[in-house]
């Protein structure tokens, strides 16, 4: 995380969880970045990445002690497809990574490479 911050970037996580649940998670895991709440998956839906869980998956989550409706304060059992976005200072998405397999996430080293390449691109424009 420090390496990302050292490159002038910020890390923000967005989740449909209620703010009180995100705060608890941040404290429990001692996270040093912001956790924002996307109530009712409004942003995820606008990006076209929200999906509804079927009854079988809802029961799997409940078996882990997770009630999505309760933790998200929602009428629906929905989640966003996990993604990583690199957004420049003008608010433009310059890189995105999504995988339908929620166990596959972008490695921090790959993010560092993108940030380094971004600096090179910016320097060449100056």
Name its key features.
globular; Glutaredoxin; single chain; alpha+beta; 6 strands; two-stranded parallel ribbon; 126 residues
Account of the 3D structure:
The chain has helices spanning 2-6, 19-29, 42-47, 55-63, 68-72, 108-125; strands at residues 12-15, 34-37, 50-52, 78-80, 83-87, 93-98. By secondary structure, it is of the alpha+beta class. The chain has one domain (2-125): Glutaredoxin (3-Layer(aba) Sandwich). A hairpin with a 5-residue loop joins strand 5 (83-87) and strand 6.
Describe the protein's topology:
Layout: H1 2-6, E1 12-15, H2 19-29, E2 34-37, H3 42-47, E3 50-52, H4 55-63, H5 68-72, E4 78-80, E5 83-87, E6 93-98, H6 108-125
Parallel strand pairs: 1-2
Antiparallel strand pairs: 3-4, 5-6
CATH topology: Glutaredoxin
What general outline do the C-alpha atoms trace? Answer: globular
Q: Please give the radius of gyration in angstroms.
A: 17 Å
For the record, the CATH class is Alpha Beta
Task: Tell me the span between the first and last alpha carbons.
Answer: 28 Å
